[in-house]
Structures are given as C-alpha cells and as structure tokens.
Amino acid sequence: MIVFLALLTLVDVLGRYLLSAPVPGALEITEIVLALMIGLALPLVERRQAHITVDFVDGIRAPRFQRVRRIVLGLVMAGALGVAARQMFVQAEDYALGNEHTMYFEIPAAPIAFAIAASLAIGAAVALATSLRPPRDTEADRIADEGPGL
Amino acid sequence: APAAAQDCEDVRLMYSRWVPPTHQSVPHMEDWFKQVEEATEGRVKINTLPKPLGKPQAHFDLVKAGTVDFTVINNSYTPGRFVAEAGAELPFIGGEAGPTSIAFWRTYQKYLTGAGDFDGVKLLALATQTGGDLWLKGKDFTSLEDLQGLKVRVAGTVTPKVADALGMVGVLKPITEVYEMLSAGIVDGIFTIPEGVMSFKLEGQLDNAVRVPGGFYRLTSAIIMSERKWNEICAKDQAAIDKLAGENLSWHYAHNTYDLGNQKAVGVLKEAGVDVIQADPATVKAMQDRLGGIEQEWIADLKAERGMDNGAEILDYLRQEADKVAKERAKAGG
Amino acid sequence: MTTALIAFAVMLALAFLGLPIAFALGIVGVVGFMTYTGVEPALYMIGPTIYDSFNNYPLSVIPLFILMGNLVSASGLSRELFRAANAFIGHFRGGLAGATILACGGFSAISGSSVATTATMSQIALPEMRAYNYSRRLAAGSVAAGGTLGIMIPPSIILVIYGIMTETEIGRLFIAGILPGLLALSLYLVAVFAVTAARPELGPAGPRHAWRDRLRALGQVWAVAVLFAIVIGGIYGGVFTPTEAAGIGACGAMYFFLRRSGFDLRGLARIATDTVVTSAMLFIIIVGAELFSNLISMSGLPNMLIDGIQAAGLAPYTVILLMLVIYFVMGMFLDSLGMILLTVPVFYPVISFLGFDLIWFGIIVVTVTEISLITPPIGMNIFIMRSMNRDLPLGTIYTGVLPFVAADVVRLAILTAFPVIALLLPSMMG
Ligand code: NA
Ligand code: NA
Question: Residue ranges of the Tripartite ATP-independent periplasmic transporters DctQ component domain (chain A) (predicted)?
Fold first, then answer.
C-alpha cells in the first residue's frame, strides 16, 4: 500500500504537469489508503513490540519483577487498546448515523472506521498474548534493538 | 429576585476554536461572550481553549458527546450530515453575509427543523459567508471560453461540481497548500471570498476575480452548544441567551466576520492590483444554465435523504428572504 | 494547573516503568480529561482523534519519507557516501571521524530520522575507524553526534510533527533547517579537529587518496545528490508540495533500490512492511500526544504560563532562556519525540504570544532535541549505538559525545542569537 501511495503521488504530479490532468481526488485516495494502511498495521506494531519506550528499568536483573512488570504493562496496553477499539466502534456508528463521507468520491467513513476498530481489537489481543508469552530472543528483540527508526 | 438568582447556578462553557487566533471572527465571538455574561449577570461564562480538541470536522460529534461545550462548525465539512442546510451553499443564493444569514436562520425555523440535522445539540445560530468568487492568476476573463481547461483548487461539495460544469479541472488540495500551489502555478485559480484572500495573504498571487450575483458557492456555519450544558443553565438565563442567539447571533457573526472582513480586503486587493470583474448578464445567464443541474441535484437529495419534496420552495423562500432583509437593513442603515 | 502538574508526574512515572510513551500520554490524557467532563465525554474524544490522525493527508509524508530513507539505506548508498567523504578528508588527522560526520550529513539529506542515520552509519563507519586504530570514544562520539543531523537537515520527521502540532508550513520548516544543519555539520567538524589537535593519538590520519579515486568515489554518490535536489529543490522552487515531494522522493529511491538490487521485489516488500510498522508506531504516538495535549489545553496551563510571564514582567528572551534550560534538563531524561510532544503544546502558544517566529522556534526545538539524543543518562542515539555494538561500553560513548554536546551548545547559542540563520532561506521562498 505504501508503494501504491508513492506511485499515486508520482502519477498525480506527472499527470498535472505533462497532461494537465491530475488524478482526480488523489487527496482522498491518499487519505483513505493511509488510514487503512496505518489502521491495519496496528496489530503488527504490537506483535513486534515496536513502541518507543524509556528503558530505564529494563536493566534491573530481578526475573520475577521483570515478569510481573511485563504482564502488568501488557494488561494496561491491552486494556487501552480495547477501550480504543470500543470508542472506534462508537465513532463508526456515529459516522454511519451522520452519513459521513468524503466530498469528492463520497466514500463513506463508517466502513473504514469499523476496520480500524476491528484492527484495534486484534491489537489488544496481540498485546495480551505477547505479555503472557515468556520473553525470548526473537525478531521482536531485533526490531526493538534497532530502534523505532526515528 | 434573589430567590430566582439562587436557583440559577454558575455554568462555565469551554469553546473549542479550530480557526486560527487571527481569524476575523475571533474578536466578535469574544464580544458576544461578554454580552452573554452580562445578560446572565456573570453566571454563564464562555472560555476559549488554547488549542482545539480535535479536527474541524470532528467538532459536531464532540459537542454532541459533551467533550466540548461550545463551538462554531463549518457545515460543509460533514456533507452527509447537513443535507437540508446544504441548499444555502448552492450557486446564485442571496447577497451579503449578514442578511443572507438571517434569511438562512428563518428558512431553517420555517422548513428545516423537521429534518433533524441538529438533533442532539443546542443550535444557537446559522451563518453563511458572502457568495464565493473565482480568483484567477495570470488569466483574463471576458467570457466562459476563458475558463476552459483552467486548473482550479476546489474544496467542499459545490465547487468541484461548479468547476466541472464550467469546463475547468478541479484540483483537490488542503487550504494550507494553496499559497504554494498558486505561486508554483500548480493551479490557475481558486474559489474563495475577498476576506479569504486577505487572511491567507494570497493577494500577491492573484490577478482577477470573477464575480456573479449570489456567488458560485457559499460556505455555511452553525454555532452550537452541548445539550447537557444547555440543560445545566436555568430557564431565566436560557431565555436571556436565546434572546442574544438566533437571528441576532447569525447576523453578528456573519456580518462582522465576512461583510466587514471583505470591506477590509478591498484596500488590500486594490493595492495588490487585483481586479474584480462582474460577469456581464449574458455570461451570468450562460453560467446559470450550466450550473442549474447542481440545484436540481440538491432538490433530489433532499427528497431522497430527508423525505422532503419542497426543495424548490425552500430555495425560493431563502432567496426572497435574503433580498427582503438586505433591503430592510439598507433602509435602516440609511 | 494542579491537574496538569499531576498529569505530567503520572505520565513520567508510567513511562519510566516501561509503558510505551504513546500509551502513557494517551491514558493520562483521557483519564485526566475525565476530571473535567466525566467518563463518557472524555472517552469519546478517542474515536475522532484516531480517525482524523490516520485519515490525514499532510501526515502521509511520514511513511513516504521513512520509505525513502529505508530504501536508500538498503541500496548501499550510505556506504558510498562514507567512502567518498573519506577519499577527500580521510588523510587528515581525525579525517575518518570528519568523513563520518560528512557522510551522516549526506545521509540526513534523504533520511528524516536521526536514529536511522545513526544505525546506518554505525554499521559502516565504526569498523573503518577501528581498522585505523581510532579511539573508540572518538569513533562512537562522531557517529552518535553525526546521526543527530538526520532531523535537522531536511527532510525531517520531527519537523513534520512540529509543523502539524503548531500549524506551521512544513515546506518552510524544511527549508529553514538547511543552514542550521550546515552550521551543525561545520561545528561538529571543528569539534573533531579540535579534539585530534589536542590529542593526535585519538584519530590518526589515514592514507591519502589520488584525485582520480576521489572523483570516482564522488561519482557514486550522485544518486543521493539527485534525490535531495529533487525533493528539497522541488519544495523550495515550489514545483510540488512537501507531501508530493515525499512521494516522488520515495519513487526515486525505489528506482535506485530496484536497479541496484536486481529487481529484488521481495526485499522491497520487506522494507515496505518495516516502513509501515514504524509509521504506525509513530501514528500511535501522534494519537497519544493529541489526547495528552487536549488535557493540557483543558487545564488552561498555557494561558496560566502567559499570565504568569506577564505578571512577573519577564523579558521575552529571558523566557526563551528558561525554556532552553528546561529543554536541556528534560532532554537528559526524555526521548526526542516525547520531549516535543510534552512541551510544544504548552510552549508554542507562549512563543507566539511573545511575538517570536514559530519557524525559528521549530529549528530551536529540533536543536534541543538533537542534544537530547546524545546527552546522558537517556539518549536514543547512544542506546542505538550500544545495542548495535554490544562490546562498546556506555561510558565510552558518553565521554565520546561530550565534545559534540559542547559544539551543540555553541550552535544553540548562535541560532538563538541570530534567528536570521534559520529564517533567511524560507523568507526567500515565493
Ligand atoms: Na534529514
Ligand atoms: Na538525553
């Protein structure tokens, strides 16, 4: 999808300059693709544990403390994502009620909001599962080690 | 009187303002808040938050949910919600912002309350801008022919259709990128009003404005507050606020923001050498023929979405009322 | 006011216990908001905040610029940047460290991220400096500091986020970063040569390269120059908007990657996935920060600060100085983005009230953020170096970056005293 976004911009700009014909409503397509792409990637962020954290207490060598901490943090994150999923469902219903849609293509907002809500719910489940699983040296650690890329 | 005042509790409202602090409306809203405070003997106060609590298009829902107490929304940002009010956004409606806004409020009271578009919030006022002009860079305008194939920045629901119908290419981009698009020649023109040109400092980028009676389109706003907060206000204070709201606030907001804003822009435009071209009657007639379909589309939408088959009557009333109020105000003003 | 202070304290406590910053910000933001409006109205703001942040055209630059940097990195162009810089100045005393700084600057021109710049350059430059018996301190310091250039020299993710938070034009912010970025680069070079002049054994000179080799090495880096010219030149010249520039830059990088990797579509897919995950993580932070700043807005803290400043009769520059001190102290403990997300909502209304330019302040904020990346005890770039080079003690890196921190403080003073350095180029735009 990200590759599609990049190509869409290129075609839009080239179309505008060379053919005097930009992609109609490229802005709306970009926004919708971006929303779906980011929304659907949320469970993957949880799976890879790609969040930015202040790893102050990571170094403390008390296995039991670390295990409890992992589980508590996992529960908190799962809870927060669960609440976010619920709110996104509420929002999706409000969008459906108000017939919210984009201005040019009249793409309805509700289905996209429902998809993000579902993705948040899956993210909550993944966060829960990840916190209960014993820590191991996996891809997650590799990504965490390489940093979030900022 | 002391007993009645005791029943009236203090209510503090939070205004989430998403327009920038430099927006023409800001001092006039502050002024209206003072009027409310005085009329309720200091019991109802409206405070402006330093930062809006969401994107402009989220504000109706935020007020409905009670997250925010008070706001001004732009109806065209959520086109699916304000189907009934979108009639005021059509081409060739009304005149100056103040009178047209009073007419808009009356039209709403007479015809549109049943549509239920503002259910769940307390509606305080309805406002329209002045009718929008077509602003061109490096292009002259004498007839419709001159517009063929021009690239213009469009937004909302009406201007994309206007651009299409007049043979132009609509470019959909956020207002924040308009300056860059004009200076780079990405677009040949934009739809806006003089006040908008001044606020976004676009005068140096533009050469001509094409103006038609009533404008090519018209943005509309609503001033709303949360029902929960409204119910916290005692009957006496509610009555005092209602007196300041409605036609009064509609005029106060629209006239001060847009009519006076446009007047301020006149000097700026003159200095920058931007000419305003009134389209001649023949051209206007040709445009009306081409754009008539947009009006028919709205009348059909109103029937399909809200079950109201009197769209044409509503538009007639709105146009007549706007005319009538403009004449009354002109007479009163001398 | 009390609510805001409690919120800050709880937020920091949660973050220090290891809760991801996005969650700490968001949870405290929403729960704190409940004290003003009750539970359901506070919860309600989560929905539109998520939807409107994801469904947001200007924010599409974030994944696109990340994609561009990742692709260029995977194409091996970063190694060639280093070789070219080394061919020109490697034979000076401390030359390899200087070359590292230059290569970091070059990589910054197509990467929006400091961490990516540090991670990429530490893989390339550290082994070379070791081979030439560089002190590990100087080697580590130059990579960690050079990496910070990633967010000053455009493109810059941090400037995008600042622009979104303060409603400042992103194109102008990018252009404003060019001269301060070059200033930073020069000051880092001065730091390297000052250190090696005092203690030559830290950075021995490398072999001299013939002009023919130099030109050949230079011939390989044209791709980076072309990408930078298209993206930033396009923005500066108004050929396209920053959002469009990001898309076109990403297409250019895609072209180089596919050509050099022999059309490795699977590699492209992997990079695309990594890019989207990193972006999604950033978008979650944006949501958390938005929720937290809603609470700050509701608490009235910025207005109280303004009132307090007026009551105390503080001169505008005294306020700036105070802010810089706060930033320096915060920057020791906080992650770059966290610092910006916490402070900008509070500070920027004050800044604009005092009549300062928000573009200039953006550059100042990026500068203090760069410092935060390399100051102990918590510096993201230092952690990156450490995690990629397990045999490098933290203490070595910390002492290694000290000369560069000094250079940064000098730069901060210059930029604060002469706002024109940041504002000259943007003022010349259309
Ligand atoms: Na950069
Ligand atoms: Na630090």
Answer: 5-133
